[in-house]
């Protein structure tokens, strides 16, 4: 027990360094979520389109990104593709945000598509009867209703991005996971730094889950009202 306590005391000066990595983690998750939402919206519209080329592209894109490991996609984006095209200076954080965003877009497209399909068909028919154009109908009538219905699922996707962002440590991004590894190597002890990062990830996910629950309850009350 004394050794356990002393090991935590030894790394105490480095705990703020590990904890501050949460801003890197959340920054990557937020950037990826924005890319994923925009891309997912476009892909979902392609999936419900009658244009076979767009429909096939969107479904193929989703199949590839959902059917391969995220860590493999990250390795391809950071190591393989730059070498293939002769790009030597790749910023790991930017690469992580883009890769996570492209991956999230595949999952978001399915979430948004299900939200669009859940909108009452009468909304489509009414918009068509009034002569509202397809894109105007989607932008002003259908998508706002769909997004309201899928906000909890979108929050869950953001939580997943936050947890999965730990793998960016494999390409030297100094997020919480990477910082705990650096401190572990510095002090030749692994449990205390890893445990600090573990607790921080858990607290952040608890907070995000709480926020998601509040959003879901508020939406339920507004629907009942």
Automatic annotation (TrEMBL):
| One GO CC term, this protein | ATP-binding cassette (ABC) transporter complex
Some GO term, biological process aspect, for this entry: which one?
amino acid transport
Name the principal localization, coarsely classed.
Answer: membrane
**Localization annotation:** Cell membrane
Q: Where are the transmembrane segments?
A: 22-43, 64-81, 187-211
State a single Gene Ontology molecular function: transmembrane transporter activity
What does the UniProt keyword field contain?
Answer: Amino-acid transport, Cell membrane, Membrane, Transmembrane, Transmembrane helix, Transport
Query: From the record, what ranges are coiled-coil?
Result: none
Membrane protein topology class: Multi-pass membrane protein
Q: Where in the numbering of this chain does the ABC transmembrane type-1 domain appear? A: 22-212
Q: Family per UniProt? A: Belongs to the binding-protein-dependent transport system permease family. HisMQ subfamily.
Name of this chain's protein: Arginine ABC transporter permease
Which species does this protein come from?
Answer: Sporolactobacillus laevolacticus DSM 442
